[in-house]
Amino acid sequence: MEGGPGSGKGTQCIKIVETFGFKHLSAGDLLRREMVSNSEYGSMILNTIKEGRIVPSEVTVKLILKEMESSDNHKFLIDGFPRSEENRIAFEKISGAEPDVVLFFDCPEDVMVKRVLSRNQGRIDDNIDTIKKRLKVFEALNLPVIDYYAKKGKVHRINAVGTVDEIFEQVRPVFKACEQKALNRS
Ligand code: ADP
Ligand code: C5P
Ligand code: MG
Fold this sequence. Notes:
Layout lengths: L1 E2 L5 H12 L2 E4 H9 L6 H9 L6 H13 L6 E4 L5 H11 L6 E5 L2 H9 L10 H24 L3 E5 L4 H22 L1
Helix pairs in contact: 1-8, 2-3, 4-5
Bound molecules: adenosine-5'-diphosphate, cytidine-5'-monophosphate and magnesium ion.
Cytidine-5'-monophosphate binds next to helix 2 and helix 3.
């Protein structure tokens, strides 16, 4: 799952999990959990998130792989990762795996800003100064990752403007097709 801050990734992930039974792994949630867990990386993660920058890949990849290894599910929905080419290359190198499908939530900046500012989850990065930085990081570091997967024919672009249900009706057929493909293989 790719898309800028507030494009609705987490919201759609909940619906995808309900409907298609994936294990949801949000890189941002894992980093926030690590941040408050007395980890040696706690203050580094806090400062990085506050500045809207990307946490070093080795830290994030380790957290994601730990969750994957301890899950009895084998279908993973990874949200907010890879956020940079460095993220992508580190994950591929360490895990030897690549996503089957990449969803890109395409959302205008003004809509993303409005959603983030009304998210109300007490996040230290949901303020206008950090949002501006996150949008710049998204353009500079995340868009190249989406281009990379697009060249491999893996990207499904979702128009992220509309109601939650309207957006899910664009998401649903992508996962339906994945289910069908898996059935055909078995
Ligand atoms: P992301 O994970 O991409 O940062 P979220 O799913 O957390 O985005 O959504 C950001 C905020 O916008 C949340 O408060 C969420 O409830 C709200 N939101 C999500 N999807 C929509 C939508 N389609 N229309 C209006 N608000 C939305
Ligand atoms: O995806 P989410 O909005 O929860 O991400 C919040 C922050 O977590 C990002 O702005 C970034 O600072 C950090 N993050 C990261 N690397 C990722 C995902 C998130 O550093 N792959
Ligand atoms: Mg999110």
